[in-house]
Fold:
Amino acid sequence: MENTEDDVFKQASVIVDCDVLEAAKENIQPLASGRRVTTLSAILQTPHAQRDVQLLAARKRFRTNIQIALEDEDDDPLEAYSRFVQWTLENYPQGQSAESGLLELLEEATRVLKDNREGRWKGTSMYLKLWVLYASYVEKPTIIYKFLLANDIGTDHALLYEEYAAALERAGRRSEADNAYLLGIARQAFPLDRLVTKHGEFQKRMMTAATIPPQRAPNAPPRRTALGVTSSSPAAVPLFVSNSQAPSSLSQADAHGSRPGPRLGTNTRLQIFVDPSGAESADATDSVTPYPDIGTRKSRVKENIPEVSKAAGSTLKQAGRTRRIASGLNSGAIAPKIVPFRDPGPDMDIEAKVVMAPPPVPMSRQKDAVPKTPTRTSAIIPFHDVPDGGGIPSTPQFTPFRDEPEMNTSAATIAPEAVMKPKTVGGGPVIESEAEALRKDPLKNYSTEECPRDD
Structure:
């Protein structure tokens, strides 16, 4: 008979879809210990609603285990907290967030276990790792390491001094980092060999950083040279020389096989530029220039003098005449000549007065006139609806929107305090989340006497 006891706890092989991991790799925080591919695949392939229900149920179970471990003297609350932290890191790939609450959990675990069982967990490496993980999520981790040294937490382990020195080195405090290594070596922290090796690597890095000069950026502009050559070498050529001296100096440099450029020295005087004189200045004045004569003032201001022409036979342009002719053509009638108005004399009869009546109104401006078929040159005539006998237009009028009757505001639903948080008025501090407050001040839940100062 075959033994089937091992098959009961053996899980079936899981096929992982790597495309899912590839699509979500930017939202996965890497861990030094690595992540299990099966756990990541199961989390990413589970729908959000179902995933939230499963995570909430698991968090309740861990909370119950921690409560039981704290109340039972024979149980281990440090193990319960460590399992909860490890489960949070695996099931929340994004790391610290509002959903995971990892930063709040680490602060709670380190604070509750500090004085639990009369400080039984201060010398354990598991408790020290919780503090180190907590320090990796805050802005100033050196405050936490000073707190650990002041309260004698994990001082027997080399991990404390290594992480403290690494945090100081990242902050640019190299001398303090060296003192942290020396303090751990003096206390014979375990493992001592690893701590000594880390200290040696740190010293090599410091020596290398001191000997290597700072490199210039690849796209940085070249440095501007001085206004003169200060090289003590006699073969150096000054930057500013006269035209007569330059060819001789350059020919001497070519005779030696090289053309020396401006070099920096110590005690050479600054060469003063000298203008050419004598034959050189005469040659310079004899050269042809594009403007041999600047002319007279009358020729230079000729743009401001109007051109004079004869008035005989010229036609004067009348402003507006072309516009009146064009408007007359558009109206469909020939523009008549302008008839001057004359006042009626005493010997003129009534019929003569009637002749001088004002001209008739054009057809285009008469309202009751029958519209003619517009020509191609006429303007566009807009269409107007002719009202019927009832006077109701064919298109109904626009009905404006009216607000609904006022409702009772007391019956409106008020958002809970967890969603809407009031903001202080008058320039006071804005309410921030617990995780953000712990990131800025990781020891805010401790007394002032227990918290060390970070220089």
Notes: The chain has 17 helices and no strands.
